[in-house]
Amino acid sequence: MSVRAALIWMLLALPAWGQGAGGQGFAGMGAEVKGFALPDPDHRFSFPADHGPHPDFRIEWWYLTANLEGPDGTPFGAQWTLFRIGLAPGAGEGWQSPQMWMGHAGLTTPEAHFAAERFARDGIGQAGVTASPFAAHIDDWEMIGHAAPGEDELDRLTLTARGADFSFRLEARAEGPLVFHGEDGFSVKSEGGQASHYYSQPFYRIEGEIVLPDGPVPVTGRGWLDREWSSQPLEGAQSGWDWFAMHFDSGEKLMIAQVRSGARSDFTAATWISADGATDPIPDGAARFTPLETAAMAGRDVPVRWRVELPARGLDVEVAAINPDAWMDTAFAYWEGPVRITGTHPGIGYLEMTGY
Amino acid sequence: MTALSALLSHWRAHPVQLAMLLLGLALATALFSGVQAINAEARASYAAAEAVLGQDRLARLVPAEGTARIDEADYVALRRAGWLVSPVLEARATLDGQRVTVLGVDPLTAPPQAGVGALADGDTLADFFTPPGLRFAAAETAARLEGVEPADGLPPGTVLTDIGIAQSLAGAEGQLSRLLLWPDQPEGLRPWQEIAPALRLEEPDAAGDLARLTDSFHLNLTAFGLLSFAVGLFIVHAAVGLAFEQRRSMFRTLRALGLPAGQLMALLLGELTLLALVAGAAGVALGYLLAATLLPDVAATLGGLYGAPVAGSLAIRPEWWAVGLGIALAGTWAAGARSLWRVWALPLLAPAQPRAWARASERALIGQAAAAVALALAAFALAGWGGGLVAGFVLLACLLVAAALALPVLLTGVLLAVQLRVRGVLAGWFLSDTRQQLPGLSLALMALMLALAANIGVGTMVASFRLTFTGWLDQRLAAEIYVSGRDAAEAEALRAWLEPRSDAILPIWSVTGEISGEPGAVFGVKDHATYRDHWPLLAAEPDVWDRVAEGRGVLVNEQGARRLQLSLGDPVRLPAGLELPLAGIYSDYGNPQAQAMVGLERFLAAYPDVPRLAHAVRVAPEEAAGLRTALVDEFGLPPDRVTDQAEAKRFSLQVFERTFAVTAALNVLTLGVAAVALLASLVTLSGMRLPQLAPVWAMGLTRARLARLEMLRTLVLAALTAVVALPVGLGLAWVLLAVINVEAFGWRLPMRVFPSDWARLAGAALLAAALAAALPARRLARLAPADLLRVFARER
């Protein structure tokens, strides 16, 4: 087992990330996770502080996905993610800081998918996040905020990342407010009460340039930033999840996800976001997910076309991958790529699937 | 089958002969495979050291010349610019009161080729990072350290741990030794030279610095192993020759009964092979024991001399046991080839008269003498014009073989000369009979001569070296106390504290780098009487110390000057673009690398970032002990940070003695093998000499007198051999001191002679000869008269 595998092991113990280690696997982690703080339903967000790291929690991420379009209308997808993983609560100076960082970058075209990852220790300046002025980085990958006075720190971002055979530089400009999932950002992940703090900025307009092996391509599009932190593992039986971020042509947005449980009924969560940013949390059991088609990759079958139904909102859509082969072949492997949405609410979006 | 049992019945009838053959072969194989085992273990350790963290496959960024460490900020800057590099710290530290090398790594950024991942696995990753952290070492090292877990692929004496923990263990916070470069880097990165100009690139080194550095040491050992084996083969040759000789009539009978020659040959070859395998296996086992006994000393030597980590325990590796068995087989076949050929050519119908061993013939002697002269001339030519270590060893071989070949010629000459001057029938018979026996004994005597010469030569070399070395130590280790701080701040405080309490504080500050293209180290030297009065200069300008102090000249050690072919006044290129003329050459024994000394001011101007940790302190000798105690009390220095002169000398001498402990052990063993060779030959001859002795006995010489004469004969021959061995041994010592040492280590040593050692050695040789002759002589003394009588009647 390698270090990378160890990181996976830690990620497995996260809400909404999982690879189905069959019940006993994380049982020992329980609710009391080595002195880490637990998500608190009474937490009131305070910005810009909450844009920064929460080292008393075990896991945290800054997760941006972007649906992009080239000058000729070719669809692209880009992903920029920074994970913080705590070995113990609290931060420190130098190598002794018990925090680690992991970066993932992805770039998807209809024909190809590129992925890269970075790892770093905390405390020496190789990676980290500051809330104000906002700056997140690992190695040379950056997500830098340059908000004007009075704006939220995340309102204007410049993102850069580079892999062996690709790179991108994106300017993101928010056109709406932050939105909070669950009950004011307290997002429940299982019937047993596992939860996280979870908010998003789904209203980004994006302009920038992606560099493919064939050369640079100017792009425009929409972006969605997720911020989430927690300390709790998945429930033992939960094996993975399917998460959708949808930008409808109407201007409305939807976060909709299911946490798969094998035998028991799956746990679902969704947030309906109006064009002005008003949210409507939708409780467990209201959504239905049906895989329509799978594709074989990396030795497994992954659904790449879904039917997603949310009767309460009259939603019945088909979600199809722009490139079915958007496999993130990183140490912790999963599927993450842009999708096209057709049906009652046409649009575009991003799909993330773990635990296959 | 019947033929086989007939052949083998010989051995049942002659168990001593069988034992001798097996013993000789086993001893020869043991010495050879023992040496090979030591070499193989050492080389495996080097390979492990070089493969650690994949350094044999990964390029790395290292501190530029003139600096010792990389600033951690450079690492972060490179990562922030997109370079995929991983930090490594390699430093000495004290764990559990023992000095070890700590190797700090960052498993998160280490390239897969570094193989670090296997150590910090899932459940333990957090433990690996979190103080006190997980520590790993080779099983042997882990066993003697608390809280260190065994792991594969680490050289002995090295503890692998997290980079942060390594920094605090070594007191090197914020410092790195090197950065491992991932093989595939992203495109379009800013050149690393712009980001971290203080670094330089080092390509993966598959050839191996340690292997190159220690090559000559191993070549020395191998040469010794081969010498021992050659001596051992004399025994095998004697025993095999005798066994064939004694069975001539049996061969004839078997052939006459219809056994085809080919089949007989096959049987005999099979017999030899079987004997070789049995003795070879025993020899390999003995060799293992020998190597296991000697290895700790060799490991200590290699560690002390070259800083090469070598495991103190021995693994059974095919590269030495297979070679050991192979050489036992090849040696036996070679030793038996002549005998086999004679069986092949055996005239079936000729009377099966046993020939009393090969007889001396003037032609053979003349041939030997000619070959000896040719080889001696070749040796002279090599001594005059040869170059390189291999040439040195060829010179040695020529010298030894020439001497060995000349030995029977010389002995014959001496015996003849004496015979012309003595009167008396008995003396005449004694001398001519001795000459008659020379061909049978000459191989054993050659073995004895070689062993003696090797002993004299190596003994003289070691003793000369020791004398020079101790004198040199007295000059070199002139300061009373040596102390170093654990970090720059402590060293600074040490200097301030010592300033009023000592006569002088002499910095021992150095940078590593290339000296005119050779890897080496440069030291800054303060202008002080300690150097002016004591430093062991071999050649120097008259005002050498003024030149050095004023930064107008540089000193280079002997091996460096020799390798770079520098003479006084030549420009010497030092790291960071410094270039100074050579002002002096000093002896620097025990250091394999080039070294230079520059005046302190010039040194600090050229290398301002040099770590300033170690110092030599001059005080009145009677105050040294008190000051040392005070230093420990005041600064809480661990014992390895402060030593006094006596201790430093003791340590240096210890390294020296260990270096030659192996040589001494092999020497004694070689002499032992030679004694066994002599015994084998004498036993062999005594069986065949009855027909020659019986007439003398019949004429009235008692058996006891005959036995005493036999004993005397052996002693006379041994004494003459020892006399011949002396000049050969001194020649050998000269070659070792003036050729091999210079080529292998870069220093030439004055030769000193130690006649008392020779006397002791001659005594040992005579004792060995007496012991070897005792058994056959005793047998002769107790021989039943009937056996002697039977000589005259015996059907043979």
Q: What distinguishing features does this structure have?
A:
heterodimer, A: 356 residues, mainly beta, AttH-like fold, ten-stranded antiparallel sheet, globular, B: 796 residues, alpha+beta, seven-stranded mixed sheet, 25 helices, 13% strand, elongated
In short:
The complex is a heterodimer of chains A (356) and B (796). Chain A is mainly β and 356 residues long. Chain A has one helix at residues 3-12; strands spanning 59-69, 75-86, 99-108, 113-121, 127-130, 135-138, 141-145, 156-162, 167-174, 179-180, 186-188, 195-212, 215-230, 240-248, 253-260, 267-273, 279-282, 288-297, 300-310, 315-321, 327-328, 334-343, 347-353.
For this entry, what is the oligomeric state of its chains?
heterodimer
Number of H- or I-type helical stretches of chain A: 1
Low-confidence stretches of chain B: 351-360
Backbone structural class of chain B: alpha+beta
**Coarse morphology of chain B:** elongated
Helical percentage of chain B: 55-70%
Helix content of chain A: under 10%
Largest interface: A-B, 30 and 36 residues
Structural class of chain A: mainly beta
Q: What's the overall geometry of chain A?
A: globular
CATH class of chain A: Mainly Beta
Unreliable stretches of chain A: 1-32
Number of DSSP strand runs of chain A: 23
Secondary structure: number of strands of chain B: 21
Query: What is the H/E order of chain A?
Result: HEEEEEEEEEEEEEEEEEEEEEEE
- Please count the helical segments of chain B: 25
Strand content of chain A: over 45%
Biggest β-sheet description of chain A:
13 strands, antiparallel
CATH architecture of chain A: Beta Barrel
Taking the sheet with the most strands of chain B, its summary is: 7 strands, mixed
